[in-house]
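Shift notes (night). Ran ATP-dependent RNA helicase DeaD while the centrifuge was going.
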Amino acid sequence: MDTPDTSTGFGALGLNPIIEQTVRDLGYETPTAIQSQCIPHLLAGRDLLGQAQTGTGKTAAFALPLLSRIDPELHSPQILVLAPTRELALQVSEAFQGYAKNIKGFHVLPIYGGQAYGLQLSQLRRNPQVIVGTPGRVMDHIRRGTLCLDGIKTLVLDEADEMLNMGFAEDIDWIFEQAPKERQVALFSATMPPAIRRVAQDRLVDPVEVRIASASATVDTIDQHHCVVTRFHKLDVLTRILELEPFDGMLIFVRTKNATTELSDKLKAHGFAAEPLNGDMNQEMRERTVERLKQGQLDILVATDVAARGLDVERISHVVNYDIPTDPSAYVHRIGRTGRAGRAGRAILLVEPRERGLLRAIERTIRRDVPAMDPPSAAALSQSRIDRFITEVRTTMTEQDLDFFYRLLARIGQEQEIEIMDIAAALAFLNQRERPLNVKEDLPRPAAPKREWSERPPRSEGRDERRPRPERDDSRPRTEHAQGRREDADLVSYRIEVGHQHGATPREIVGAIANEGGIEGRYIGRINIQDDHSIVDLPKGMPREVVNHLKRVFVRGQALRISPADGTRPAEASHGHAPSPKYGQTPGQAQDKTPRAAGGFRRQSGDGSAPRRGPPSKDSSGFRADRGSSRKPRD
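Came back to this:
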């Protein structure tokens, strides 16, 4: 659908006058492309299928028209918005509250895992008109009888692709069955894979389809560069970048929750104001950490993809991908944390030599090159430190009373018969011992690849053209994982010591392995749950340390104690260098012989950190609590 002229402003869209006035009070003058296209259709009560990247204003695109149609005198849930994470649920609920500030008697309630049920129950008794929640907690309240969907007029799925990737497909289906048959449905997704198309076909009635821009259009305002660096020098390169880059606030992405803590600790040891942001932190701690970044008490957050979902802090001028994402669309979401609403932003991607293929996949997805940059040189680092040292000396001379120190140096020079310049040189040396002013060695530059990566077979652009997943065979037991997966030739069967008698479900097993092992859910194959154990198909070539870690991961209070199903010790797992399919390659194509993570496996962070050990945090379902964070409402 072509982008219409948005110069007419919000007044021409037909919004409720109260909502229109609120929008003007907030300083919004011209609707974005997705707002101008979606608002009229949603006001007319049409079902809508929208594709738009983060930062395009899609929250307002559905919140403004739905608020215009709401009945404030009717004190019961009229709108239900499903979101994949706590962050996004909070973001959307705050946006609704902001847009509806002039509607008397309006209430919106976010409900998500990790928050006490008592608080949510007391707020549900106020009969809010809008419920924004994560699927798991919404299901819990419906089953408890504390949330009734009989009065729901509109159901919104925000970031539907992310919800399906997280294994919420069956939950969403169940929630749809509890809602009235006659209702409006709006589905928004950053990508449009076959699974989303199937949901739209099954649940939307004669929908209007709106597609806004491409991945590249959402990142054009961001200055992007990549730096090829070996795993063992990633931390050194990062700290040099932090010293040389003039940044306000920075968001650093890593793959695992454990890596957020380890990397932030190392950065603090280097003198940087850094803190982790991950799903193991309780909601109060997460909100306090984000607020410290907003207030300038922190400069750097080290986060995982899920923890940073929906995060919008104006101070974030830089995003660093310390660990390259295995999904190109995740890269777009990551760097979308900066350069929002027309602001300038800078994104730096650290790429290990074996990960050049993932870089090419990202470039094909965003349809532009990510230029290379050299690691900061020793000479540049030395000059920066010297300049900073000179500035500190001049500032001290101007702002401090140094009479005592003048007398002290004169005394030392006289009593010890030492020249003043010699004393000054010794003091300068003592001052810079922890961070030498004269950096002597440049970091080694990785050798260029022996083959031309451009010769790799072309890959379909974007996830919406990925190979369709096979239709589900109704004869399969429901214990089998129904996500799209690689062919059996790319998978190895493992036994885990949790089964029916422990109450385990496929979703919990997939979530535990995906979160703790760093394996994308779509690369996890069949799951056969038996009485006291289960068999799960996982990608070939898993590193031994990951297999060892998964042994200590808990589901339903049971350690997985994972082992090869055939009782043998897989030789290919010892070092993680087994051949694997190329990124984005469909089963049956030639294997890429370049060493890299197999079957979508996300390797450890470059500092060698291992995944977090111990049982994951659990919500009422016996597994992972939904994640969230407080933030300013802006899409």
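The chain has 19 helices and 21 strands. Residues 378-431 form one domain.
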